[in-house]
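Lab notes, practical 5.
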Amino acid sequence: MKRNFTLIVLLVLVSPQLGGCAEVNPGYSIYDSGKPGVGISGWLDNDTVVFYSEQRAQTKPGTQGPPPVHEAGYYVWDTAKGTVNKDSSLEDAAKVCVQGNVVTFLRKSHTDEKKWLVVTREKGQETVTPLMKTEWFNRFSCRYYQEAPEWAILNHETLPLMEGHGFLDWSSEQEVQPRQNRRIVFCQHGHDEGIKLSIRMRQVFRSTVRYAPFKDAYFLYPIAYVDPQTEQESPVGLWPEGKPVPMWWLAPDGKVTTEEVPYMPFMRSGSRGFFPTREGVFMYTHNTDGLGKPGDAGGYISQNGKVMKLTTGMVEQVSVSPDGCKVAFIHDPYDTMYGKDRLNRITVKATNLCQETDHVH
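Output from the prediction step:
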């Protein structure tokens, strides 16, 4: 299936809560794949992103059960050429992971439905191996392991990094209580002693750590504020008024550098996420004014001490291209009550932060 994409240039008005705080930049183009979005698997290159989509059929009021689904499957969107094609080779695939020229996914065995196989595609070659353990998986390199990797440590909460970089450990052999807010330990590959980072265990979720290929470094951000003087912790999700949000870069050699995102009023509450790009920090918030009222919810870019709103609505499943320029995401306009007038407008979109447009409409 081939489908042309739609180019939307959004002129976003500043909501009352953001007046005087977030500068609106209408110069970034928002590209719409036109396909309903469920999940984004990753980028094959700097222009091509893989995502899962399914179209839900319209149903009459009073119909029991969920609406029928059709056109379900994995799609390949070339954002440069503007084409969206269904990838039939990923039929019945599960947990598709894309990291450049490496693609992995799970598929049930044809001879034993209780067993799963790992399919790995790399540089035109495909290999099939048995799935040993689902947790022996590296989400940065998209690889599964046949033997216990170095980071599979009993009673430790670890996060494997790119091959050869080692892993992060949220645990400590010295802990009396397993959730004491100790420092995260960086265990370099081939080194016996780990490096205690300045970042605390309860400041960062393992699931929110990002890898930026364009910088060959890891990007971490806090989900809870810790006072640098008193070390007092704020509840998860809340951020003290006026306090900038630190973003940490971890290099493969263990060096940590910090940059800051300015405080915004929507940070007082609600879920949010931050993603590194070549042009600054892309972030989203789900802080709405109620059902069908997006309010502050949307996608933003933080550059040079300023925050600009790019799009209004619910932004989820964010994925950044390897060069750090393009950002793909699932966008829900959240402008009406959830139903037929909004359901199929929840689509996969993208923007190129390295290229601004000269006009809006």
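Observations recorded by the TA: Confidence is low (pLDDT under 50) at residues 1-24, 357-361. The first strand starts at residue 3 and ends at 4.
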